[in-house]
Batch of 2 targets.
Target 1
Amino acid sequence: MSAKNITVIATFQAKPGKETELKNALIGLVAPTRKEAGCINYDLHALPEDPAKFLFHENWTSKAHLDAHLQNTHITTLLPRVGELCVAMPDITIWEKIA
């Protein structure tokens, strides 16, 4: 059975006063992630009416590639800062393409 493409939706909510710092930290993930094996796209979005909300829309060629991404230094370096920058852990859902 071949690996299936997966989509990840991850949303972040910055703590008051931490919007710019979180935005910059998330932007810092984009370039290195886009170079990773298996990354189809890794796009960061901001909610125009709420500058504290951010969303990643990611597509990966397999769950294995996503798992490898989560072990990379640029990701593991951000994880300890989530409590400082965000009101809660990001909401992350993984979707499997079916058609």
Target 2
Amino acid sequence: MYLPRPLYEVLPYAYVLGGGALAVASYLLPSSPWADAALALGSVALVAGIVLILRRRTFRDEASRYDPKSLDDF
């Protein structure tokens, strides 16, 4: 599946923002199953967004140190 680059770059931040919004909504909702579901889904989205941001940062940092010409030496 292909995503346009602007959408691909914004997606982790949207996960973090949406997860945070759901976590706040679960706090504001009266005690109900919806509040518990919002907290669970918000937590998953928040963690997924943070993991994506950190994994992309690590990959890009390591890829910038990689010398593509080193494979041509063989």
